[in-house]
Amino acid sequence: MSSWVRLHEDDHVIVALRPYAKGDKLTLGTGAAPDEGSEQTIELLDDVPKGHKIITRAVRKGEHVLKFGYSIGVAKEDLEPGRWVHTHNMGTGLGGILEYAYEPAAQGETRKPALDGARTFQGFVRDNGEVGIRNEIWIINTVGCINKTCEIVAKRAHAMYEGRVDGVYHFAHPFGCSQLGDDLVHTQKLLASLVNHPNAAGVLVIGLGCENNQIDSFKQAIGEHSAERVKFLKSQEAEDEIEEALELIDGLVAYAERFVREPVPVSRLKLGLKCGGSDGLSGITANPLVGAVSDRLIAAGGTAILTEVPEMFGAETILMNRAADERVFGKIVHLINDFKQYFIKHNQEIYENPSPGNKDGGISTLEEKSLGCTQKGGHAIVQDVVPYGERITSSGLNLLEAPGNDLVSVTALSAGGAHIVLFTTGRGTPFGGPVPTVKIATNSELAARKKNWIDFNAGQLLEGKSMETLTDEMWEQLIALASGERQTNNERNGFKEIAIFKDGVIL
């Protein structure tokens, strides 16, 4: 196994796959791999942590540094071969609001993996024709004041109906009261989209009675729904809201038991794509692997959803050039610039990213993070762009408006209709969203150390396994997950949470 990797033949940097010490000597090829091209020997001028970058070609102060074949920043000083490249000597080359031109990729530039359209999984076909991969009961509260009430109901019902449904779950949140305008609308849309998620066979909506998010107005956000599937309870009007809630759940469980798993085309599956706690290997292992799985699902007629808009900055033109048409291109431009205006409105630096954990892992600038992040979207054409809190209606690759925050974006992906979220990480996290959240490690050390968190090890790509082999393995794991044959760690541990994007006044 090589101890470093160059990702593109034009790159100025290589990525260390193990720690190096100052004075170590490396023999490099001029191509994309260690054994390609003529040899070059460099002596390291600094200690270099695993996952971090080493410059192999001289770059002058003010010049762009290339990785992935794209600029990941600008040199703050003259960089000579053997130097450790990070935040101390390279900064972002991004700045301000940009103008974009529609330049669609030439036909044939996107990859088309072999079709797997005949494949099926065992899912639940709902009365409205939608498909779920779990047969759960969800409790959605209109307002945060009754989180504990809903928690008590969920715990009691989960124990009462174990074995009859796949679980009874409540998703606590602090909002719904004292919100105004668009901020309240966003909360209602997000919660309404969760109500309509097909993984929930039945839903109990519990309100308090005096909140801004009144049940009557929330029903309008939910839209057309089955009275058998969605029940409502106003706590202030109930003599014993816990007992009445349990009675309503009893009816929802009886309704849920009508559904049994049956073969469903894999084209009905929707995957959410997310990364969090990234490191220098994210754009080398886990994110490209997720991109390959996404491409396979889309080629079979399925749907993948990419979000984390601020982590598209610096790589957005790659997505824009893959827009299905000029209308979709315009929606991507609006998505990017609208999120930049959000930063400006709050007097924040647009490109204040990556996080401290990202930097520790080897990511130096936002464009470096974005170029790795967007690889989760594979090479498919972007079919649509969907606002925050709303549901995906187009098959293929969709972009969803949401920030990079792990809980907020996974919640948005779930509300958008994702049955499963593929979550890549180089640092690790235990959390999970309302739907099965597959934690994919970028490196084997993390996968071995955090077995109760990590579901799949993409670090095997650096240990001799091919991308094709790992794509096949992950594909089979997803089919088994969708069919209820296995659970993710977040499901086994009971880690199912939501977070709602807040942008407005609280009274």
Structure summary:
The chain is of the alpha/beta class and 507 residues long.
Please tell me about this protein's structure.
By secondary structure, this protein is α/β, with parallel strands linked by helices. The protein has 13 helices and 23 strands. It has a 7-stranded parallel β-sheet with strand order 19-20-18-17-21-22-23, with helices on both faces. A 4-stranded antiparallel β-sheet has the order 1-2-5-8, with no helix packed on it. Strands 13-12-14-15 form a 4-stranded parallel β-sheet, sandwiched between helices.
DSSP strand tally = 23
Which overall shape is indicated by the principal axes computed on the Cα atoms?
globular
Q: Ends: how far apart?
A: 59 Å
Low-confidence parts, pLDDT < 50 over ≥5 residues?
A: 31-36, 107-113
What percent of residues adopt helix (DSSP H or I)?
25-40%
Q: Whole-number radius of gyration?
A: 24 Å
- What number of structural domains do the residues give? 3
Q: Which structural class matches the secondary elements?
A: alpha/beta
Question: Main β-sheet: number of strands, strand sense, barrel status?
Answer: 7 strands, parallel
Strand order of the largest sheet: 19-20-18-17-21-22-23
- How many H/I helices? 13
> What is the averaged pLDDT score?
93
Task: Tell me what portion of residues adopts beta-strand conformation.
Answer: 15-25%
